[in-house]
Amino acid sequence: MYQRSGSKAIKKDLTNTYALLKGLGNPHEKLKCVHIAGTNGKGTSAHSIAAVLQAAGYKAGLYTSPHLKHFTERMRINGQPASEGFVVRFVNENKSLIETVQPSFFEVTVAMAFQCFHEQQVDIAVVEVGLGGTLDSTNVITPLVSLITQIGFDHQELLGDTLEQIASEKAGIIKKGIPVVIGDNHDELRGLFQRKADSINSPIEFASDSYQVSALNNKVSVTSGTIEVTFDPDIKGAYYKNNLAGTLGVIDQLQHLGYDIGDDYIIRGLSNVTELTGLKGRWQILGDKPLTICDVGHNEDGLESIVRQLKELEFDKLFIVFGGVNDKPWDDLLPLLPKEANYVLCQPNIPRAIAVADLAQHFKKHELNHTIKEDVNEAIAVAKSQASEKDVIFIGGSTFVVAEINDL
What we know:
Layout: H1 2-5, H2 15-23, E1 33-37, H3 42-55, E2 60-63, E3 75-77, E4 80-81, H4 84-93, H5 95-101, H6 105-119, E5 124-128, E6 145-148, H7 156-159, H8 163-170, E7 180-182, H9 187-199, E8 204-206, H10 207-210, E9 212-216, E10 219-224, E11 227-231, H11 240-256, H12 263-271, H13 273-277, E12 284-287, E13 291-294, H14 300-311, E14 318-322, H15 330-333, E15 342-345, H16 356-365, E16 370-372, H17 376-386, E17 392-396, H18 399-403
Parallel strand pairs: 1-5, 1-6, 2-5, 6-7, 7-8, 13-17, 14-15, 14-17, 15-16
Antiparallel strand pairs: 2-3, 3-4, 9-10, 10-11, 12-13
Helix pairs in contact: 2-6, 3-11, 3-12, 8-9
């Protein structure tokens, strides 16, 4: 299980996934899908597309990972997690198949999700890649349209040390003859995506060519040609606007395929993503006085965006409850964090976590003021006990820190 153990849990081919799905009768071949890969933004994009489809009256499946609180969050239908009864039944009915194939946790989960969506006869399934693209277990589907969101540095030990290597791995979801929307805005990667699409006759759209997105006072304006639409998204992370062009490019492709998704449905969906899909942990407000926020952003681009948005807030003092995993380049990440903040370091309860004492050594090296409280919720309590009503508390550094917040 990658989220607990790291790269040793990864199986770098699709043999097990195909074997599982064959044993289930290949449910993935009976689904209409949208497939999404990328470093940052793929989760919010997946939830946003599902929300728009729901608003338009479609029965939308949504597969994402990892989960925060409950395993069943990984497979939702119209925002509702799969039932625990379905999970128990799936495992009981397929125990001998699973024992024969010996798949990873993720491989079983992908097969389970496709079976769930098939049984529930979803109109369309929005499927987020787990890690990478080419050899990710989700890459067995032939989607209606693919989306590649922002590319950045993360999981370099598995995906490569350059943006080009990482982008090439993500581009593995591009399928022959299937349109792909590129939400990423790195000019230096444009040629790589174009060549990959051209080589397999995949129509390609660079979303930034079609949509211009701007944000002011919590509202977002999207301009396409002579049309401008303004709405108030319920995802308040400043990074959200970076993903909107790609999301809208996918919606446009679905419209061309005959899906009835008018502007009213788009605005309703994008304005109510968290309500419609149950999305959590994206610039989520947990309380006021002091303003308390959490976010799952954990790589270079994600942390930069979070810190930028924190600095735009008004406060007397900034408290940051922070923890992470042991395979991150901490000496590259910590210089991004605000020097003036008061840090309470913690350790999520997974084997992959960086020991809080080791993290403290990195913080000491970078001269960041910190105290230690290993348990996530005890660390939050320390920050709350020291903060005044005019201060801000931020909780993050890792998906797994956010997952352990009691009040999430």
